[in-house]
Design brief:
This protein has 290 residues and is an alpha+beta fold. It has eleven helices and ten strands. The longest helix has 20 residues.
Length: 290
C-alpha cells in the first residue's frame, strides 16, 4: 500500500498537525491543520490535488525566491495540482489548513483538477466564503466523533464549488445598485440570464433598462463592477461549461445555445479562461468519470 500523501508532507515539513480528520460523503477529503514558524520548506509533488487555506500568520511566498508564483496572506487559498512540487518561504508564524482530495469526488472536483492541471502550477485566489467554509469545517472537526459528517459534506461541496467559480470567472461580481436603479438592473439581469442566445448588445440592454446606452454603461459598471460585455461573456461561458458537463449536446449547438457567434468563438473564449478547448474539457471530464 502506498504511503498516504499527508504522511509524506508531515515528514517534509518536519511538523505534526494540530488537527487531522476525514470528511466523508460525495467529496472525500482528508484534512490537516498546521501552526508553526520556520523559514522555508520544499514539498515534493503529491499524487493527489490539495487545497490550502491560510487562516493567520505572516506572508507566505510559493515558488523560487527569484520568481515566486504566488504570495499568500491570511484568508487566501491556493489549489495545488498533483505531481507539482512547491517551495514555501515564510516571513513569520503561519496557521493553515490542507484539504487532500481522496479517490472519488463529483463533477466539481473533476473540473477543479482539469483546471489546475491545465495551468500546470498552483492557483492562488482570495474569497471570504471559501475561507469561512474552511474555518467552519475545521471547527466541526474539532468535535471528533461528534462531528456531523453530513453537514461537513455539504459545506465542503459549497467550498469547492465556490473555489471553482472564483477561478473560472473573468472577475468577481458584486452587485450593489442604487435603490433608484434596482428595478432597471433586475430587468436587465433577467434578460441576460433568460436570453443568452439573443441580442445582448449594450443598445439592446439599455433599451430594456429604459435609459440611453451611455447612461446604461455607467449604471451597469457602477452596480456590477465590470463592463456589460464582460458580464455577458462570463454568463455565457458559465452556461457553456454546465452544458459541457451535464449534457451530450454537440459543441456547435452549445455555442449557439449560449449566444456565441460560432463554435470557434466559443472555443477561443473558453480556452482563454480554462486553458483547454471545450472538446478537451469534455473529454478529460469523461475520462475522470470512468
Amino acid at each position: 500500500m502506498s504511503r498516504p500523501n499527508w504522511l509524506s508532507v508531515r515528514k517534509q515539513l518536519g511538523q505534526t498537525p494540530i488537527l487531522e480528520g476525514h470528511i466523508h460523503g460525495e467529496i472525500p477529503l482528508f484534512v490537516e491543520r498546521y501552526m508553526y514558524q520556520t523559514g522555508e520548506r520544499v514539498v515534493s509533488g503529491l499524487d493527489c490535488m490539495a487545497l490550502l487555506n491560510q487562516f493567520g500568520g505572516g506572508t507566505v511566498h510559493e515558488g523560487q525566491q527569484s520568481q515566486p508564483r504566488s504570495q499568500n496572506l491570511p484568508t487566501q487559498s491556493i489549489l495545488v495540482p498533483r505531481g507539482v512540487s512547491t517551495h514555501w518561504h515564510y516571513t513569520g508564524p503561519v496557521d493553515f489548513v490542507v484539504f487532500y482530495f481522496l479517490e472519488g469526488g463529483n463533477d466539481i472536483t473533476a473540473n477543479l483538477e482539469l483546471l489546475v492541471e491545465s495551468r500546470g502550477q498552483p492557483l492562488s485566489f482570495s474569497d471570504q466564503l471559501t475561507g469561512a467554509a474552511a474555518q467552519q469545517l475545521v471547527s466541526e472537526l474539532y468535535k471528533g466523533l461528534g462531528a456531523d459528517q453530513g453537514y461537513m459534506a455539504r459545506l465542503a461541496a459549497l467550498m469547492l464549488e465556490q473555489s471553482y467559480r472564483l477561478l473560472t470567472t473573468p472577475c468577481s461580481v458584486s452587485i450593489s445598485p442604487r435603490y433608484a436603479h434596482f428595478s432597471r438592473l433586475q430587468a436587465v439581469l433577467n434578460q441576460i440570464h433568460r436570453n443568452l442566445a439573443g441580442d445582448l448588445s449594450v443598445d439592446a440592454l439599455a433599451s430594456c433598462a429604459g435609459v440611453s446606452s451611455a447612461h446604461f454603461r455607467r449604471l451597469f459598471q457602477e452596480a456590477v463592477g465590470m463592463p456589460v460585455h464582460r458580464y455577458v461573456l462570463a454568463t455565457r461561458l458559465e452556461q457553456a461549461r454546465k452544458l459541457l458537463t451535464l449534457s451530450e449536446m454537440p459543441i456547435a449547438h452549445i455555442a449557439q445555445e449560449c449566444g456565441f457567434s460560432s463554435q470557434s468563438h466559443l472555443t477561443v473564449s473558453f480556452r482563454t479562461i480554462h486553458a483547454v478547448t471545450p472538446a478537451q474539457f469534455r473529454a478529460r471530464l469523461a475520462s475522470r468519470r470512468q
